[in-house]
TrEMBL record:
<dbReference type="GO" id="GO:0004107">
    <property type="term" value="F:chorismate synthase activity"/>
</dbReference>
<dbReference type="Pfam" id="PF01264">
    <property type="entry name" value="Chorismate_synt"/>
</dbReference>
<feature type="binding site">
    <location>
        <position position="331"/>
    </location>
    <ligand>
        <name>FMN</name>
    </ligand>
</feature>
<keyword id="KW-0028">Amino-acid biosynthesis</keyword>
<keyword id="KW-0274">FAD</keyword>
<feature type="binding site">
    <location>
        <begin position="125"/>
        <end position="127"/>
    </location>
    <ligand>
        <name>FMN</name>
    </ligand>
</feature>
<keyword id="KW-0521">NADP</keyword>
<protein>
    <recommendedName>
        <fullName>Chorismate synthase</fullName>
        <ecNumber>4.2.3.5</ecNumber>
    </recommendedName>
</protein>
<comment type="similarity">
    <text>Belongs to the chorismate synthase family.</text>
</comment>
<keyword id="KW-0288">FMN</keyword>
<keyword id="KW-0456">Lyase</keyword>
<feature type="binding site">
    <location>
        <position position="47"/>
    </location>
    <ligand>
        <name>NADP(+)</name>
    </ligand>
</feature>
<dbReference type="InterPro" id="IPR035904">
    <property type="entry name" value="Chorismate_synth_AroC_sf"/>
</dbReference>
<keyword id="KW-0285">Flavoprotein</keyword>
<comment type="function">
    <text>This reaction introduces a second double bond into the aromatic ring system.</text>
</comment>
<dbReference type="GO" id="GO:0005829">
    <property type="term" value="C:cytosol"/>
</dbReference>
<dbReference type="GO" id="GO:0010181">
    <property type="term" value="F:FMN binding"/>
</dbReference>
Length: 358
């Protein structure tokens, strides 16, 4: 199983959804970094479950314990290891259905890949629970990037068919910078937010779920970061975004809509201002030839609906090899998008830090 990512800095995640703990080891951090633990804790709380009716009732505080690599308020240069205890598992919820393949889950593929030895409780190592240590690592990366003036922010672009336009590709910079400088996060139109919440709650009442899109932006990256072909900015960030459970699509700039444009519409024309070369539009999302051009990197991430729903579904019983049905029990998010926002930012931060250090 590939639980390690990175070259300049290596990240190794461990644990299962219903195991004793989860965590991450970060190897390659320079010594002497002054980490703001309160800010990291705040990032962890953004992702944590059990806060309202829109999320799973599983109540995990996601409090991290630093095991090594941090002393007297600074990194030591040795591997930074953190552990997050699992304290609110209901493993018995999975005993009744352990031989039933849950539709759209990794039960079948995991069973085949690991010859039936995979931990099926709550998805085991495939679970979104493993994104908690990724948020920790991303929070560390964001603090290092902020020292270089690089800022990352994101918001919910859509829930189902309800969309909100927050980021203007060109005029994003000033507003987002001011918000993040004050440790605030992008807020959406109140009317749209209420519609999104209502849509999620309607799905929950009907024992169903819904997906959506998270839109992100990376500001103040200088031109010249990244390289073709396999270390392009898009491929590096995408590899991490697609590692987030439930992500089914990633696009940069105008994304798939650019295929509907003429070249004269899609091309970002250049101009110079105060000695800096910029573009009038940002259809390419701040990236040309896999390399940053100095404009904001704008990207979107599509999340599928939570596969765990209480509606009866058709499936297969693994032991008898017979067709049957399943009603999934347990505590699950009717929509994971709102908790995915800090995870998207974390993944982007980890990828950008790797590129900046290369």
């Amino acid at each position: 199983m590939s639980g390690v990512w990175g070259n300049k800095i290596k990240y190794s995640i461990f644990g299962e959804s219903h195991g004793k703990s989860i965590g991450i080891i970060i190897d390659g951090l320079p010594s002497g970094i002054d980490l703001d633990l309160e800010e990291i804790d705040r990032e962890m709380r953004r992702r944590a479950p059990g806060k309202n009716k829109l999320t799973t009732a599983r109540n995990e505080k996601d409090e991290f314990e630093i095991q090594s690599g941090y002393f007297n308020g600074k990194t030591t240069g040795t591997p930074l290891c953190i552990m997050i205890k699992n304290s609110d598992q209901h493993s018995r919820d999975y005993e009744k259905t352990k031989n039933l393949l849950r539709p759209a889950h990794a039960d079948y593929t995991g069973f085949i890949k690991y010859s039936g030895f995979n931990d099926y409780r709550g998805g085991g190592h495939f679970s979104g629970r493993l994104t908690a240590p990724i948020v920790f690592a991303g929070a560390v990366a964001k603090q290092i990037l902020r020292e270089k003036g690089i800022i990352i922010g994101s918001h919910i672009k859509s829930i189902g068919s309800i969309e909100e336009d927050y980021f203007d590709d060109i005029n994003i910079k000033e507003e987002l910078l001011n918000r993040l400088a004050n440790k605030e996060f992008p807020t959406m139109d109140e009317e749209k937010a209420l519609k999104m919440k209502d849509e999620i709650l309607k799905c929950k009442e009907k024992m169903d779920s819904i997906g959506g899109v998270v839109e992100g932006a990376i500001l103040n990256l200088p031109p010249g970061i990244g390289s073709p072909f396999f270390n392009s900015v898009e491929s590096t960030i995408s590899s991490l975004l697609f590692s987030i459970p439930a992500v089914k699509g990633v696009e940069f700039g105008a994304g798939f809509n650019i295929s509907k444009m003429k070249g004269s519409e899609a091309n970002d024309e250049f101009y110079i201002e105060d000695g800096n070369i910029k573009t009038y539009t940002n259809n390419n999302g701040g990236i040309l030839g896999g390399i940053t051009n100095g404009m904001p990197i704008v990207f979107r991430v599509a999340f599928k609906p939570t596969p765990s729903i209480a509606k009866e579904q058709k499936t297969v019983e693994l032991v008898s090899k017979e067709n049957t049905t399943i009603k999934i029990q347990g505590r699950h998010d009717p929509c994971i998008v709102q908790r995915a926002v800090p995870i998207v930012e974390a993944a982007a931060a980890i990828g950008i830090l790797e590129l900046v250090l290369s």
